[in-house]
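On clarity, I found the account of how folds are encoded harder to follow than it need be. What matters is that the chain and its backbone geometry are given together, residue for residue. I therefore recommend that a typical entry be quoted early in the introduction. An entry of this sort, consisting of the sequence and the corresponding backbone structure tokens, reads as follows:
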Amino acid sequence: MKLKTVLKYFVALPASIYLFVFLLISEDLNDRRPILSLFKILQNDTSLRVIESSLTDPVEASKGSITNNPNKNVYFGDLHVHTKYSFDAYVFGVTGTPDDAYRYAKGATVKHPLGYDLKLREPLDFYAVTDHGFFMGMIESYADTSSKISKREFTKPFHNLNADVSTNTADENLDTFAARTALFSDVIASTINMPHFDLHPKVMAAYLTRNVQLALKSFDYKTHLSAWSDMARAAEEHNDPGNFTTFLAYEYTTSTEVEGGNLHRNVIFEGSKRPLRPFTRIDSLNPEDLWSWMDKLRERGVDSIAIPHNGNGSNSNMFEMETFRGGPISQNYSAKRMRNEPLVEVTQVKGTSETHPLLSPDDEWADFEIMDVRVGSRPPTYSLPQAGYVRDAYLRGLTLDWFSQGNPYKFGLIGSTDTHVLGGSFDESNYWSKVGILDGTPESRGAIPLTPERVKTVTEGLIAANQPVLLIDREQGTYMDVGFDQWGASGLAAVWAEENTRESIFKAFRNKETYATSGSRIKLRFFAGYNLDSVDLDSANLVSEAYKNGSPMGSDINHNNNKNPHFLVWAVKGKHGAPLQRVQIVKGWIDTNSGRPKEMVFDVVCSDGLVVDPLTHRCPDNNAKVDINTCKISDNVGSSELKAKWQDPTFNPKDAAFYYVRVLENPTCRWSTWDAINAGYKPRKDLHSTIQERAWSSPIWYVPRDSGIDTIPLTGTSGTLNFVD
């Protein structure tokens, strides 16, 4: 009898302790008994565990191969690249690895999922593979029927998903369009949202390690860590100081909780140290929690920056006037955001987020590669433009600062691709878009009509997969209408750095001495200062004198005895780009008396010796033309180089302002026009037939003297609103 009693207690005691612990966890998570938050001392946050990823025998460049230029060199790269480890890329038919992506960036040929070759016209200088942090590597593991997790019922739709992609014909792969669309739109979402029951040991493990993913049936931690480790290894092996720079990185793929407003960011690490695992949307949807995590890692010697992208698809959420949870923005919030997000990706395949015709109606060039739908929405759903474009964000930042809330939108600019097929084309005449099998042909991206057979196949497949049938009839036939026709062959990140190394390029990120292009490798310098009037534009020492007498893009210039600063711009056409048409300076400012935001676009130098009209601030038309039937552009029109010094004719020393440069090339054919004429069709009339490739500098901010006047909102003083925190 005593033995039975002992055995009873032997079983009951652990069970009681287990249940008691779960009770404490439940109380803590629901904030019902704050004192029980002391239980958190048992937690160990695995996302803050630091790993050294440097190789035992790294590839090192010889000291002589690293050239340090105090006047800085321009380097072009891509900081937004996906491989098979991204949940969506694998669904799109991509089986290429991070190694393949880095080889592509260095000039090698890789394969598109539809079988054709992808190759750059010229190699890049730096690159970052940024696979989605959440469910990293998981879909490939579901598809591999030899893996442990593939034995679970929910993985069956993914089994052998890409097993035949490399041997299928293009038509056979295209026949999987509907099924892959359904996997992306519906199945992945339902698969991810499958937690273990509350008393499962993995739920306790998730709590104790602050790793929420462990509580999901669909998550395999070993697979996740293996993919992240392989990304780190590849970045280390391909990093070649002085010649080619890689950055370990990933995408934090978050969004708003209700309407699906895009809030995605790429997290770029400076060196070889990394966290054991990335912080993902499963840890928190709130970007402010991401910044806190980055701050904590920085205290542990791991520096990083986050780069938001696709504000155009955020439905007015990327650059709000309040916090994620709806609170007022404070000076501490602004400082924290800028410490962690000094850059924004202004252009990529899924559209350009500089400005929008509804936001800048007086800007004739505002309607450039606009994607006006929310990211990943099915059917494509309109995205409100306010708070989604960088020019508007800059004005919002000045407004918040005018109210003594700090400026959370004082960021520099880069471009990148967001390619999901290892690399982007950066070439309108040889365009392959970004989502593999889904948009890898002119038909699938809506540039030419579908054959009657393909219309039938797509319609039946989408209906069977319970997906919207997104087709549209136009003058030449029936076209796909998925939204891919709003995408483009953009973009590139450009930096000015002393040498091609992680340290130097990351320093340029921090300093915001960066700019973006839509694909052309335009070289762009931009300076401001009070002594630049003495600089000779034709001097061999122009750049060193500009650095000596001014400040480069990304900098502040402070009030100086009411002086009107000079600006210096210098643009040189890219090797494969069209001639330059004009260089503009975009100004935004806050009227110091009213807080009213204003903007204006100034042409500052024109091609072909033309002169800016002092009343309209516009260059005369240089009459550059494009033959839409052949895509031939005008000969002997435009310039290979444009440079000038300029002063703002509307300058008021009391008004806070920003200035950034926009460089425009002569018009050339858009990718959709190239697709059409190469296939023997006329370009669609409802799509732009031409574009003007361009570059955008990071701004230079003018900071006026403090007026000493307190702004008093309707609800009371700024002190009452606690804008400092």
Observations:
- The chain has a mean pLDDT of 92.
- The longest strand covers residues 580-590.
- Residues 70-192+219-486 form one domain.
